[in-house]
Specification:
Length: 312
């Protein structure tokens, strides 16, 4: 059986949340959000998990989830390190801020040699996206530079406790044409407001499609990302050397612009939820309990893994 990996970005501390939000229990039997994502991924057919974490989180991370998941599916670990850069490049003196989601994925280049999906550790995506991305990645007719993205409906991805940042997408015939990281998004009745890059107010349709960093890639992406990171770093102005990040949506957008990749939008009707703010946790706990009550998940997720068989 061929390998298809799920890469989980879990290196962030969650500054707005105020703790290691990826490891917060939210399920009725102590499950964390990643448990549900991995459960759904196994069900869809994924058979390897790659955790991107910080080295200093390794012990806690393995105790909370890693050691348990290793008994259910093949697991690899990648450490996002400021010094993990292409040959010939060094981090600027004084840089302590992580390089961002693009570099996090680039850190996987020696571990991931197969088609892979990417998700955030602290987001619940629902089942539909995993099934659609798995099917896409395992369709033989798709080429090495043909990727996919789960397109979520903006109104299904907002928090009641503060503004959010989303990658607002524009597509044509189901193909992604551009993605714009848009901050300060909040619901205002039957529409949403946000800020453009110049700080001006903009209006967004709640039915707009957005990226939640749920992607499907082929391993050829790493060569393009390595070249892209070299270009990104070499062009950083002095004032951005310590803070500017190499972000995955911007990487993808640049590849599209240069016609080096085609990204299919796989629309999902599932409702996102996650712990962006500490106040979100109560809502997330209730949401998982509702899904259990509806029969979407068993009350105790951990033992049920052993009975789970991928759906073909």
């Amino acid at each position: 059986m061929s390998t298809t990996s799920l890469v989980i970005m879990a290196a962030g501390m969650g500054s707005r949340f105020g703790g290691i939000k990826q490891l917060e229990p939210v399920g009725p039997s102590g499950e964390i959000i990643m448990d549900y994502s991995i459960y759904d991924a196994i069900e869809a057919g994924f058979n390897k998990v790659v955790f991107i974490i910080r080295k200093d989180l390794e012990k806690d991370f393995k105790e909370v989830i890693g050691n348990r998941i290793e008994k259910l599916i093949r697991v690899e670990y990648v450490f996002q390190d400021l010094d993990d850069l292409p040959d010939g490049y060094k981090k600027p003196e004084g840089r302590t801020k992580p390089w961002g989601t693009g570099q996090a994925i680039l850190c996987c280049r020696d571990i991931v040699k197969e088609p892979f999906a990417v998700i955030n550790a602290d987001d619940y995506y629902g089942k539909e996206g995993f099934h659609k991305i798995y099917q896409f990645l395992n369709t033989p007719s798709y080429q090495e530079n043909q990727y996919c993205m789960a397109g979520f409906i903006l109104g299904n991805t907002l928090s009641d406790n503060g503004t959010v940042t989303r990658g607002v997408c524009k597509g044509e015939n189901g193909v992604l044409k551009s993605i714009v990281e848009t901050s300060g998004i909040k619901k205002e009745g039957d529409y949403a407001t946000a800020k453009d890059k110049d700080g001006n107010d903009i209006i967004l349709d709640l039915h707009s499609l957005v990226s939640m960093n749920m992607w499907g890639f082929k391993p050829g992406l790493f060569a393009e990302m390595e070249k892209g990171f070299v270009e990104f770093q070499s062009k950083l102005p002095e004032e951005d050397q310590l803070k500017k990040e190499y972000l995955l949506p911007e990487v993808v957008g640049d590849l599209i612009k240069r016609q080096l990749a085609e990204v299919t939008i796989l629309k999902t009707e599932d409702r996102w939820f996650g712990v962006t703010y500490r106040e979100d946790k109560e809502t997330v706990v209730k949401s998982f309990q509702d899904l259990v009550d509806q029969g979407v998940y068993p009350p105790k997720l951990f033992p049920s893994y052993r009975k789970l068989r991928p759906i073909r």
